[in-house]
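Need the bound structure for flavin mononucleotide, inputs here:
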Amino acid sequence: MKYYLAPMEGITVHLFRNSYEKFFNNIDKYFTPFLVPNKSESFKTREFRDVLPENNKGMNVVPQILTNDSEGFITTSKKLQQLGYTEVNLNLGCPSGTVVSKNRGSGFLAKREELDRFLEDIFKIDNMKISIKTRIGKDSPEEFYELIKIYNRYPIEELIIHPRVQKDFYGNTPNLEVFKDALALSTNPVCYNGDIFTAEDHNNLIKAFPEENAFTKVKAIMLGRGIVANPGLMNLIKNNTTIDKTVLKAFHDEILNNYIELFKEDKNALFRMKELWGYMIYIFSDNKKYAKKIKKAQKVSDYKDAVLSLFEEQEIIEGAGLFYNQD
Ligand SMILES: Cc1cc2nc3c(=O)[nH]c(=O)nc-3n(C[C@H](O)[C@H](O)[C@H](O)COP(=O)(O)O)c2cc1C
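Answer from helper R.:
Posting the output first, comments after.
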């Protein structure tokens, strides 16, 4: 089984990926948060920083593109090709209102004829593998049965399925019935994504879709929020080892220092770190008061104090996952 880190805008950016690789080194493929094609010859600074080869050394990284304009997709792919990338990923999953209203991300799933034409165009690019990250529909899971007919017309490097519809956002539970059908119906390799927060979640999924069963095609699992919440999750899954507090603290400190260096302004660095804590806080015992302190901190020194007291006074809960202890 291969394991991928999910693209998460503002979170699994190059700083996070590099630190993760250094401390944990157990991810087969990293996906960048989405890039949006623009008309100019170059990338936006933030996007460029994220795909620049020197910021992604020693990692297997796939840039992701969000658009419904085939020309923009092709131009951006060619720019990425020049940087040395051999695979790009198409985002057909983003549920955000502003994206969907422009018929992009999971909004594109409701425009099947346009989607088919778009795919026909982009699959003409030479020497570039294209994978797709998709939800199973915009409004209803039934839409997937039409979408898969379209996907099967193209040599997709990998079809990464997050089995929710746009309307679900992150609510409801992943639809494993439709995912099972996807495995049977897809002529392309399939990767599962969604709600793997604990080793138990992972093991239940594997049990439901065993690799040795020739009928199934799950060759890879992509994890997002689960890893951000518990950066030790992959080691727990692979080797049954729990993360050490000192390792997590060192990982955290490196990300913090790199953000401070990158942004120069502490406010921006703290904003990013607080986003991480929005996930990571749940793996700590009795975390409420520390969560508040971290959120409130306006100065790096206050932030560091709050984090240090959390690490000193609380423990990482065994078997912890994202929504553990949350009420
Ligand atoms: C804050 C946030 C940002 C995300 N950004 C992206 C993105 O840029 N591209 C994308 O395809 N999915 C994005 N996603 C979706 C994740 O990649 C993933 O599909 C989703 O979180 C379900 O997987 P998980 O349960 O393992 O987290 C984002 C999700 C979150 C919560």
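Comments: The pocket of flavin mononucleotide is lined by residues 6-9, 11, 33-34, 64, 91, 93-94, 133, 162, 193-196, 223-226 (CB under 6 Å). The chain is about 45% helix and 15% strand.
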